[in-house]
Amino acid sequence: MITGKYKELYDGLTGVIPKERLLHDSLSTLAFGTDASFYRLIPKLIVKVQSEDELQHVVREADKLTIPITFRAAGTSLSGQAISDSVLVIATHGWQKHEILENGGKIRLQVGLRGFQANGWLAKYGKKIGPDPASIDSAMIGGIAANNASGMCCGTSENSYKTIADIRIVLSDGSILDTASKESCESFVKNNSSILERLEKMAAQVKADKVLNEKIIHKFKIKNTTGYSLNALTDFSNGFDILKHLMIGSEGTLAFISDITYNTVVEHPHKALALAIYPNIESACKAVQILKNQPVSAVELMDRAALRSVDSAKGVPAYLKTISDNAAALLIETRAESNGQLMANTEQISKSIEAIATELPFSFTSDNKEQAILWKIRKETFPTVAGMRKSGRTAIIEDVCFPMPELASATLDLQELFAKHGYTEAVIFGHALEGNLHFVFNPDFNDQTEIDRYSNFMDDVAEMVVDKYDGSLKAEHGTGRNMAPYVEKEWGESAFKLMKEIKDIFDPKGILNPGVILNNDNKIHLKNLKPMASIRESADKCMECGFCEGTCVSEGFTLSPRQRVVAFREMERLRLSGEEPHRAAELNNLYKYAGLATCATDSLCYMKCPVKIDTGKLVKELRHEGHSQRSESIAAYISNNMSSVTAAMRAGLSLFFYIRLIMGKKVFGALATTFHKFSGGLVPLWNEHFPKGAKKLSATKQETHSLTDVVNNTDKVVYFPSCITRAMGVAKDYKDSLEITQITEMLLKRAGYDIVYPNELNSLCCGMAFSSKGFVEAGKQASDKLEAALREASENGKYPILCDMSPCLYTMKTNMGDRLKLYEPAEFIQDKLMGRLNIRQLDKKVAVFAVCSAKKMEVDGAIAAIARKCAKEVVVIDSNCCGFAGDRGFLLPKLNQHGLRFIKEQSIGCEEGYATSRTCEIGLSNHSGITFSSIMYLVEEASR
Ligand SMILES: Cc1cc2nc3c(=O)[nH]c(=O)nc-3n(C[C@H](O)[C@H](O)[C@H](O)COP(=O)(O)OP(=O)(O)OC[C@H]3O[C@@H](n4cnc5c(N)ncnc54)[C@H](O)[C@@H]3O)c2cc1C
Ligand code: SF4
Ligand code: SF4
Fold first, then answer.
1. Of the bound ligands, which one is closest to the alpha carbon of residue 566?
2. 603 CB under 6 A from ligand 3?
3. DSSP character for 753?
4. Cα dihedral angle (889, 548, 916, 942), rounded to 10 degrees?
5. Contact 17, 47 (CB under 8 A)
6. Mean per-residue pLDDT for 8-37?
C-alpha cells in the first residue's frame, strides 16, 4: 500500500503518467529492487517514464515533496547504485532515438539504447563508441555514461569522459540544459548562472592549489571511478565544459541524462590475437610494460586460478591443464586498417617481447574461430567462477586499479590477501595495460561471521590499494554504495570536500540517488545485502546480472527473466522459512500472471545468460508443478488422439471463419472480444487473421511426382507438416488460396524431390504444445511417437526431414538431437532448394521476421538471405520474440502486442511479410497491418 508523501507523489504523477506505469505492488517493487550488485533495496514506487516531459514532471514533483529518486537504465551495475528504497525511475522504453552526425564522426544517443546498438549503426562508417564495457550488449547509454564504464580496449583515452561531445540533462529542479544547443546554453546562463559560476570558481581554486591539482591529475592517469570526475576541474575552466564532464561517472546523483553525443572512435577491421603463457606473474607483467608502447589494442592478464577455472570449458586448448602452478597468461590483441599493417604489427609485437621467456611458444592468429576460442578463456572466467559457487553464496566481482609498473607486486599482494582471508576460490584477471584488475570470489552472506570476514577483507584491500600503491578502489564499475565508505580514504579530505560541494551545487536538497558515491554511514557497504536463499539448482546460480533482459519479450510488460528468478527466490525463501505469510500469498498470487502466464517460454534468455540459466525452463517446471492429476490426464489423452484433435480444430476454425463471413468483421469482432473477456481469457481473442480450417491431408506414405522440371529424381525428402499447418488453412487476407502444405509440396516437387510422408501423419505432433505448458509426459509421448515415424520414413536418418514450422522443428531437435537430419524451413530452403530452383527477383518490398526458434538454432540469417534473392527490397523486423508463443497470442494477446509494438512502423511500405511459424504469422499480420505467411509462399512465387 502506498501511503504518506509517496501517495501524494503518486497522486501528483497520475495526471501525466498512466497508472500502468506507476507500480507499487509487492511483486513489482521486489522485482525492481535488484540490480547486478549484491545489495537489495525495495522501492516504494516505480515510475516508468517514456519522455522527457514525463521525466521533468517526476523530478519537479519529487523536488516539491523532497522525495529521493534513483534513475535506472539496464540495472547491470555492480556497486549498488541503481537501486532505491524510495522512488525508482526507469528510463528505458521510449528513450530509443539515435542520430548519426558528421558522417559517423559523432553519434547522438538517447539513454535507453544499449551500447551494442550504437556500434551496430556505426559499423558501416568504420566507427564505434569509445566506452566498451564487457556488458555492452546489455548496458544502456544512460548507465554507461553515468558510470563512466569502460572495458578491454578503451582505457582512459576513449571512455565517456574523453569522448563526450555534448549532453542533454534535466537538473534536480526540472530545468533542462542541452550543451549542443546555443539557445539552451544561453537560457541556462540566464537562469542558472550560479551553477556555472560556482563550478568555474572551484576549478580556479583547484588549479591554484598545486598539491590538490597534481593529486587529481595523478589519480586520473589510471582508470578511476571512485567519487566524482574531479579531473573536470583540472582539465577545464569553462563552466559548461566542467559541467558536462562532471556528469560522466556521476551515477545519477547530479542530474538526469536525456541524451549524450559521443565523438566516435575508429573500429579497425583487421584483428589478430595471441595467448602467451608465462611462468609467473612477474614475467607476464614485465611483458605488459613493453607492450604498453606497442601497437596493441588490448592486453588481458589472467592468473593461474583464473586459467584453471576455465580449462575444462568446451573448445579451450588442452595445454591449459598442463601449465605450471604459478603460470600467468596474457591475451594480446592488435588491430589494423589493412591486413599488411596487421602482419607488421604482429611481427613487431612478438619481437618486442621475445626476450621474456614464455612457458610455451605462442603466435598470433587472425582466424575468427580461433580468436573466439581464445577470447572464451578470458570472457568465461567470471561466469565460470560465479557458476561454480555453492548454492546460497554471492558472486562478487571487484575492480581495482594500480599504476602499471606496480601491477606484478599488486597482483601477488592480492593473492596473499585471498589466502589470508580464506577466499581460496578467488581468481584474478584484468586489463593489464591499464593496471586494472578484477577479482572474483564467492562469500556467503547468510552468515554474520562471513559478513565480518568480507568487511575485514575489504578494509585490507582498501589499505593495500590506497596506502601502498596509491591506486583506485573502483576503476570501471562506479562507487555506488559498495565503495562509498572508502571515498574519503582514497581521495583525502580536501578532494572529498570538493565532491560534497559538487553534490550541493547540483542537488542541494539531496534528492538524486542519495547515499550513492557520498554516504555518511561507513558500514553502508555491509548493509542491505541480498538474501541468497538456496532454492533449486535451476535458479540458484543466477547472479542477477540482467544480461537476459534485453532478449525477453515480457520485459517492460510484466517481468523480465531476472525478475522472474528474483521473485521466485523470495517466494521460495518465504515458503521455506514460513515468514510473512500474508506477503508470501500476495506474491504467489501476482506471480501466476506476471511470472508464469506471460512468459513465452521461448528460452531466448538462456542464450544470453553467462551462467546458463533457462528461465523459460524454470517457468515450464513451475507450470508443471501447478497441474492437477486431471489436467495431466487430459493432456495425455489429447496427445494420444492428435488425429481427432486436429480434425476438431479444422472444423472449429472453419466454423468461426464462415460465421465471421456471414456476420461481418465488426459484429463478430465485438462478440469474440466479449467472449474472450467473460471467459477470463480462456476463449481465444479472435482477430481477422484467424485462418479457416485446413483441408485434411491425404498423404500416402510415399508420393512420387511426375513434373518435367525434375533435377534429380532419386533425391528424397521426408516432409512432416506440423499439426498446426495441418489444422490451419489460409486466412481471408491471403492472396494465394493454396495452403502451406500444398505450397511446400509444390516447391519440393518443383525442385525435383520425391516426398515421403511419415506414416499415420495425421496423428503426429512434436509435443511442443504440451511441454510448453509443463505437460512433460504428454509432450514426451508425442515426441517419441513422432521420432519413430520419422525414423521409419527417413530409413533411419538417410533422408533429410523438413518440418514447415520452426518452433516444432526446434522442439524436435531438442528432443531428437542429431539422430535424424532435421531441417528448419528457411534452413532447408537455403541449403536444399535455392540451388535447384530458377529464382527471379520480384519487384516488391517485403518484411521478414526470424522467429525465436530460428534464432535459438542460429539459422535466423537464412530467411533474410532467401528473401533478398526473391524480392528487391527486404526489411528485417527487429524484435527478439513476437510473444505469440503458441497459444499465448490467442489467450494473452497483450503479450503479443507488446512484443510487436514497433512492427507497424518497421514494416511501412512493405507489401507483405514472411516468417516460418503459422501461429506467429497471425500475430505478425494482426499488428503490422500487412499479411504475413510462410517464406515458402515467397519462394514459390519467385520460382514460378
Ligand atoms: C557481468 C558484468 C560485467 C560487467 N563488465 C563491466 C565492464 O567491463 N566495465 C564496466 O565499466 N562495467 C561493467 N559492468 C557494470 C555495468 O554493466 C556497467 O557499469 C554499465 O555501464 C551499467 O549500465 P546500465 O545501463 O546497467 O546502468 P544502471 O545499472 O541502470 O545504472 C547505472 C548508474 O547510472 C545511473 N543512471 C542510469 N540512467 C541514468 C540517466 N539517464 N541519467 C543519469 N543517471 C542514470 C543509475 O542511477 C546508476 O547510478 C559489468 C556488469 C556485469 C553484471
Ligand atoms: S538468469 Fe542469467 S542472465 Fe539473467 S540475471 Fe540471472 S545470471 Fe544474469
Ligand atoms: S522464456 Fe522468453 S519470455 Fe520467458 S523469461 Fe525467458 S526470454 Fe522472457
1. 2
2. yes
3. P
4. 130
5. yes
6. 97
Q: Which of 442, 559, 611 to mutate to test the pocket of ligand 2 (most atoms within 8 A of CB)?
A: 611
- DSSP track, 730-751: EETT-S--S-HHHHHHHHHHHT
Judge whether 366 and 270 are in contact, CB under 8 Å: yes
In this prediction the pTM is: 0.91
Residues found in the chain: 944
Is the CB of 602 inside a 6 Å radius of any atom of ligand 3? yes
Cα(389)–Cα(122) distance, rounded to whole angstroms? Answer: 39
- pLDDT tens per residue, range 36-72: 999 999 999 999 999 999 999 999 999 999 999 999 9
The continuous run of DSSP H or E covering 119 comes out as helix 115-122
The minimum-distance atom of ligand 1 relative to the CA of 610 is 1
pLDDT digits (tens, 9 = 90+) for 446-482: 889 999 999 999 999 999 999 999 999 999 999 999 9
Cα distance between residue 257 and residue 171, in whole Å:
9
Contacts of 14 (CB under 8 A, 6+ apart): 22
Torsion of CA 873, 879, 880, 883, to 10 degrees: -120
Q: Which ligand is closest to the CA of 39, given by its number? A: 1
DSSP string of 360-397?
S----B--HHHHHHHHHHHHTHHHHHHHTSPTT---EE
Ligand 3 centroid to 724 CA: how many Å?
Answer: 22
d(CA 486, CA 226) in angstroms, rounded, equals: 9
Of all protein residues, the one whose alpha carbon is nearest to atom 8 of ligand 3 is: 552
Sheet order of strands, 270-278 included: 270-278, 328-336, 298-302, 427-431, 436-441, 396-401
Cell 523470495 sits on residue = 570
User: Of the ligands numbered here, which is closest to the C-alpha atom of 604?
Assistant: 3
* CA distances for 129 relative to 100, 263, 337, 841, angstroms: 12, 7, 17, 37
Compute the distance from residue 248 Cα to the ligand 1 centre, in Å: 12
